[in-house]
Amino acid sequence: MRVTKKNLKGNEGEITVVPETLDDLWHLKYIIEKGDLVFALTKRKSDSANDKIRPEKTEKKTVRLGIRVENLEFHKFSNRLRIHGPIEHGMDAGSYHTLNVEDGVDISIIKRWKKDQIERINEAEASSKKPGVIIVAVEEGDADIGLVRHYGVESYAHICQSSGKGEGTLREVFFNEILNKLKYVVSDSQSVVVAGPGFTKDDFLKYVEANEPELAAGIIVEDTSSIGTSGFQEVLRRGAVDRIMEQSRIAREASLMDSLLKEIAMDGKVVYGVEEVKRANNYGAIETLLISDEFLLHEREKGEGGGIDSFIRNVEYSQGKLVVFSTEFEPGQKLEALGGIAALLRFKV
């Protein structure tokens, strides 16, 4: 994400950004809220043309509109964020319009900014300068390729060894198919982790070294006990992605969730659920507050006296840290199952 303008007075004002990836659109879903004023270039027919009994054929004009947000939808599979609401600035003020925000579209957001939203902007901007990561989890006869995104690991391809024809042994045909899939998706700015049980991953790396030495030079090998989603998760827990992307958001969430579940199993320094977390905060015991993005979004939409944001400020005033989990990814889904909110504590309460 590129930030092209930042004009803030205190916590209010305008930030203009250009989303560059699907991850950036996902970030904007949790930054833009009901009541925000959002400007973007869009196409629209004038309402006056629709009022005619026999309207002439009119083309849509490209105009810049300011929309007061009423709702928004993140369409992951069409790479689009849809923002709907009444027009406050521009043609046909008072009428409703939907902004379709895609990669490369300038979007200006005017609002009262919350601390975690500013942090999301900063994180997305910093992440655009870091390399992306692709995980190839491979075992004998089976392989999965996953793309590491901010919201989780997106499954890109599953490859099975077949008995079909091809040059070389069945194993070489299998490795060649994985390599071709990998070459199609990898770019110069991306790193590759090859993982899996046994020696198949090492043999695959040797195959890549023999056929694509430049690609092989940037590959990291990691041991895991399985492939697929659980294999991707193991790679994150073992820190391979962390070593590549430094403080990767999802690697950090996977590690924190491991710590949370271990403390729960030991009946240790942990609480989960709204009432228990509030009680811990009353004692100043919260070291790290864990909240799912969907829980945070829902609480803010309720808008009951700024309750959730007041609570977060109170935790931070007591030197607690906030981590917002993505529910697109397994740790966030586990947190959501625990009520959407939990905390690692300084001491047991």
Automatic annotation (TrEMBL):
GO terms under cellular component: cytoplasm
Subcellular location: Cytoplasm
Domain eRF1/Pelota-like N-terminal: 1-126
Alphabetical UniProt keywords: Cell cycle, Cell division, Cytoplasm, Endonuclease, Hydrolase, Metal-binding, Nuclease
Superkingdom as given in the UniProt entry: Archaea
Role of this protein: May function in recognizing stalled ribosomes, interact with stem-loop structures in stalled mRNA molecules, and effect endonucleolytic cleavage of the mRNA. May play a role in the release non-functional ribosomes and degradation of damaged mRNAs. Has endoribonuclease activity.
Keyword Cell division recorded: yes
InterPro entries: eFR1_2_sf (IPR042226), eRF1_2 (IPR005141), eRF1_3 (IPR005142), eRF1_Pelota-like_N (IPR005140), Pelota/DOM34_N (IPR038069), Pelota_arc (IPR023521), Pelota_N (IPR058547), Ribosomal_eL30-like_sf (IPR029064)
The keyword Protein biosynthesis appears for this protein: no
Protein name: Protein pelota homolog
GO BP term, example: nonfunctional rRNA decay
Matches recorded under SUPFAM superfamilies: Dom34/Pelota N-terminal domain-like, L30e-like, Translational machinery components
GO terms for MF: endonuclease activity; hydrolase activity; metal ion binding
Pfam (any one): eRF1_3
Stated family: Belongs to the eukaryotic release factor 1 family. Pelota subfamily.
Cofactor: a divalent metal cation
Subunit structure: Monomer.
Gene name of the record: pelA
EC number: 3.1.-.-
Organism: Methanohalophilus euhalobius
Enzyme class, broadest EC rank: hydrolase
Domain comment quoted from the record: The N-terminal domain has the RNA-binding Sm fold. It harbors the endoribonuclease activity.
